[in-house]
Write a structure and sequence with these properties.
Number of helices: 7
CATH topology: Aminopeptidase
Distance between the termini: 25 Å
Radius of gyration: 19 Å
Bound molecules: coenzyme A
Largest sheet: 7 strands, mixed
Order of helices and strands: HHEHHHEEEHEHEE
CATH class: Alpha Beta
Number of strands: 7
Oligomer: single chain
Length: 211
């Protein structure tokens, strides 16, 4: 039985939780504004050029503060290519302005990045190749792409996303409900590795979901 005092404590806790989970009115407005102007759709092979242009504009500029120049000089050529397998996956998306200019991209797969043939778990998805054009950052594009990933992955039973994040993207993923569980290193080619945080987001009861 819940006593009056205990009920009050539970109510207060729940209220705090709801306030913490509720998107701010400013954020909701920005996302609504963005939703009016930005179109998110599944990317295909025909989008390789436009997505490559976003990756080439985004990664060198936005990653420069966090990685040594010699590491980026070697790693970026591998990272700024639109990945043909992702473009065929049906779970890789792009964000475009009403005139069709591609300004962001990102998606998810059951396959773990950089480990073709590794075990697949039907309840676990992997976040893949997110980028926003530097002229469009902090306007809700990455978040909008991620919410599309969440909706589509949940619909097919995914309960958890894993992400091999870049150092610069860590605060972005944290804002989306990911927690850092350790470091990770991807081998881009023999002898060439790229490191960042490994992050996890549970799709059930996500802290950033509205109450
Ligand atoms: C990471 C990236 C995709 C984010 O794209 P974005 O469109 O700017 O993200 P959003 O505007 O949707 O940001 C959502 C929230 O994430 C957080 N966030 C995003 N970028 C941040 C940053 N640089 N520092 C701190 N918080 C950040 C904020 O809380 C933001 O909400 P707010 O702007 O209302 O405060 C973009 O910065 C990027 O392309 N980075 C370089 C490439 C990269 O590292 N990709 C990830 C590979 S794993």
């Amino acid at each position: 039985m819940v006593t009056g005092e205990r009920a009050l404590t539970l109510f207060r806790k729940q209220r705090v939780l709801n306030i913490a989970r509720a998107p701010s009115s400013q954020m909701v407005k920005r996302v609504e504004d963005m939703a009016e102007r930005i179109v998110v759709r599944v990317a295909g092979s025909d989008d390789a050029e436009a997505i490559g242009a976003v990756l080439r504009a985004s990664y060198p500029k936005l990653m420069a503060p966090a990685y040594p120049a010699d590491v980026l000089a070697r790693a970026l050529p591998f990272m700024v290519r639109a990945n043909p397998a992702l473009l065929r996956s049906g779970t890789y998306y792009l964000a475009a302005t009403p005139d069709g200019t591609v300004v962001g991209c990102g998606g998810w797969t059951f396959e773990r990045p950089g480990e073709p043939g590794s075990a697949i778990y039907p309840t676990q998805g992997h976040i893949r190749h997110f980028a926003t054009h530097p002229n469009w950052i902090r306007r809700g594009i990455g978040r909008t792409l991620f919410e599309r990933c969440v909706a589509e992955a949940r619909a097919v039973g995914v309960q958890r996303f894993e992400c091999y994040a870049s150092v610069v993207a860590q605060p972005f993923y944290a804002a989306l409900g990911f927690v850092t569980v350790g470091p990770t290193t991807i081998e881009l080619e023999p002898g060439l590795t790229f490191s960042g945080p490994r992050m996890i987001c549970h799709l059930t009861n996500r802290a950033t979901d509205p109450p």
